[in-house]
Write the structure tokens for this entry.
Amino acid sequence: MAAMRFTDAELPLHIADRLAGLPAVRAVALGGSRAAGTHRPDSDWDFAVYYRGGFDPADLRALGWPGEVSELGGWGGGVFNGGAWLTVDGRRVDVHYRDLADVEHHLAEARAGRFRIENLLFHLAGVPTYIVVAELAGNRVLHGSLPRPDYPPALRERAPGAWWSRAELTLSYARTNFAPRGAALECAGAAARACHETAHAVLAARGEWVTNEKRLLDRSGLRLVDPLVAAMTPDAAALTGALDRIAEILGAAAPE
């Protein structure tokens, strides 16, 4: 394996310099665990390119880094409108596309307490559209300038109820439709989703930003549901009892 040319301190500056030179890019930020200082030695590197106007992924491909570069909207559209999985100097590097017009829209919506929840891979409960605002709050800007918003009071007021309502409905549906048939897998899946929805509610009530679900249950104190899910068996009465107990735990944790 070839020796790495850049230290961990030098690498983000090297990458940001190359990304900042792409047409339409106005800012580059380092995100994820690397920005938060919670990374492991093998953690990947997450970057966001904030552009205004026409960004062309072909310009990113032309940098010559091996990997996969999606088109705009290539990750299913919505709030995550595409990006790239690359290898740079022997490290795994993710690049997310961030249209500044779209980011500014979601920032204004969050300040008004409005958001949507979209389906997205790797997010059991879905992803709130204010995730791009959460990124602004937690990312480390390496090139250009970006706002660093506080958690909006209106979002803190409205988001917890929206998330908790989804959790209640998720569990209620499972109790009515899955538990009576002894469908343990479906009940376990519903419990996992409801726990993540409740965790979003808990953290929103605290005014804490969420950018992924990796530590969501730990941050919200909901890991105690694990044994109940692990003990689920294809028995209708036992499943109903487990879902009722999970509903009690989540209800006690949920904001009033």
Residues 153-253 form one domain.
